[in-house]
Amino acid sequence: MQQWRIHAATGRRLATAALAIALMAGVSGCGTDKMKTGSIGRTGSDGAIATLSSGQLRSASARLGKAYAANPDDKATAIKFATVLQMDGNAEQSLAVMRKLAISHPKDRQVLAAYGKALAANGQLEPALDAVRRAQTPEYPDWRLMSAEGAILDQIGQKDEARQLYRRALDLKPDEPSVLSNMGMSYVLEGDLKTAETFLASAARQPGADSRVRQNLALVVGLQGRFDEAERIASQELSPDQARANVAYLRSMLAQQNAWSQLKAQDGKKSAAN
After folding, report:
1. What does the angle CA 54 – CA 55 – CA 58 come to, to the nearest 5 degrees?
2. Of 238, 257, 256, 236, which Cα lies nearest the Cα of 246?
3. Residue 62 Cα distances to 58, 65, 86, 264, angstroms
4. Is the model's pLDDT at 167 over the cut of 70?
5. Which of 11, 81, 144, 198 has the smallest count of CB within 10 Å of its CB?
């Protein structure tokens, strides 16, 4: 089942940061046509991967695995295989596929971008940043790579630099939903849910918006306690049962967060009294 992933933020990051389908969404076709959102996105037919069920992902993984085994140096097959592996929860295997491809294609922008995405999915953010930056060329800047770099910077806490890159990407590609979505998720990480919703609602209105954009919007609406509205948005992409399950999960996570906050507040009062 597709499900929002929630993890508690710390310090000033009051909001729970969650990644619908994956904060790091696929990579495919850079240099020519690549990265899309969520942070590092997909284009073309690969975008459909985000909407596959777990059973469909396993079938796609088996099919692409056979094609990859027959010709591991085929760039398109390797990138698609790595993308499906990551979506199916096999991030380490996905990274292994992309590492091998990067060795074979050390200067290919599309491969470097996909390799950076695989590194980021495994929590190796600094190497991911290096790979994405090496894929960029100043004389022919790629808005997808700018957005991807911004997504990685957001995850290491450099929100100002990340948003600057999103703005530059939007200058090159106005109203691009994947970039608007990344900007929105940047504000989620900061805990500014109102601003996040503004960007995500704008992203969702764009003709090219995909499932991940609308699921991110549903998430932010739900984080503000508007659960019925969140469920309606989620139901546009998921089955009614999946949408209800996601909202129920979000409710339980927020309830836990509130319980811990109350306990902390009580502990603080006791300490002050002693």
Report:
1. 90
2. 238
3. 6, 5, 13, 48
4. yes
5. 11
